[in-house]
Design goal:
By secondary structure, this protein is α/β, with parallel strands linked by helices.
């Protein structure tokens, strides 16, 4: 198995991508790495590191897709970019099972659909990040920004894809699914969520009903179903709140001598708290619903985050997540056809 890395996507490229890729190689024997990007610059970074060179290859791509580029225009015009070359290899090479990029989110999502293609029957692919919960588990949000305007049937498929992800990759056999709304009562919400609620009740999933945003990290849910607009607002709100809490805590400690002294006894606890809120350890957000595994890492990913994203991608490929999503979508289509007759 090979995993692609778009080595020039992201704020810290190519150093973070190369270091993260090599750390991945040195930590396991299950997958090799293919870097796409400027060959001379990549070789200069690789020469600084020690690794099995038989497990690493480079696809030369001198151009770069930036955040200032139009996603569709860049995918069509920048054919020699590291991102487009990665999509081309992912589509054409059967030995390549997955891809990781920390480049422009819009370009990654656009390229995934145009270059790799949707799983047959999938109406809209969705971004699905993982967040930590207070019980020590994880919860996924599907969708968190790929689809701003949604029809009810999109969210029905989001639920199935999220369940498949948590079951196959995270090992949760019967994931609890919550529908993001403005209240837990069945009748709460807008026209979209009310229509989706009725659909999710009919699915063979562990649907726990409506949920409020304040309960997202309680550990009571494994999958949060929402449209991309509300999901992105939820995700950014959680990230911002975590950053604010850590900043205010640090500020309060620095203002008191006794508090500074007390931190000496709580250093381990603070370190654990900071680690649990660190997005770098979670890798990235998989783009569910396309033909091959694609993980969108954070634009500011450091080597640790790239390595985590690679392990995430490897796990998804080994568990045949794409095949499981395809089976669930086909099953739903069969049920609908039977009902129509």
């Amino acid at each position: 198995m090979k995993i692609l890395i778009d080595a020039f996507g992201g704020d810290n490229s190519p150093q973070a991508q190369v270091q993260g890729g090599i750390d991945f190689i040195n930590a396991q024997q299950g997958a090799d790495i293919v870097f796409t990007g400027d060959e001379q610059k990549l070789k200069a970074e690789l020469d600084k590191l020690t690794f099995d060179r038989n497990r690493v290859s480079i696809v030369h791509a001198p151009d770069v897709v930036t955040n200032e580029d139009s996603p569709t225009g860049a995918i069509r015009a920048k054919k020699e970019s590291s991102l487009v070359k990665a999509f081309d290899v992912l589509k054409s090479d059967e030995s390549v099972a997955a891809m990781v990029s920390s480049g422009s989110t819009g370009a990654v999502l656009t390229g995934a659909v145009l270059k790799v293609g949707r799983i047959p029957g999938v109406l809209r692919p969705a971004l699905c990040p993982l967040l930590p919960t207070k019980t020590g588990g994880r919860v996924c949000i599907v969708d968190c920004g790929a689809n701003m305007d949604c029809r009810p049937e999109y969210l029905r498929q989001f639920a199935l894809m999220g369940v498949s992800y948590m079951r196959s990759v995270c090992g949760i056999q019967n994931p609890r699914v919550g529908l993001l709304s403005v209240g837990v009562e069945d009748h709460k919400g807008n026209e979209l969520t009310k229509a989706v609620f009725a659909m999710l009740e009919e699915l063979p999933i562990n649907f726990a009903g409506n949920m409020e945003a304040r309960d997202a990290l309680t550990g009571e849910y494994d999958v949060i179903v929402t449209d991309g607009f509300a999901g992105n607002v939820l995700l950014k709100s959680v990230e911002g709140t975590a950053q604010m809490v850590m900043s205010m805590l640090k500020q309060a400690i620095m203002q008191s001598a006794s508090a500074k002294f007390g931190t000496l006894f709580m250093k381990k606890a603070f370190s654990s708290l900071k680690s649990s809120m660190d997005y770098q350890q979670f890798g990235g957000a998989p783009f569910l619903g396309v033909e091959k595994v694609i993980v969108k890492a954070h634009g500011a990913s450091n080597p640790k985050a790239i390595t985590a994203a690679l392990f995430q991608a490897e796990s998804m490929a080994k568990s045949d997540l794409c095949g499981q999503i395809k089976a669930e979508v086909e099953k739903l289509a069969t049920v609908e056809e039977g009902a129509a007759q």
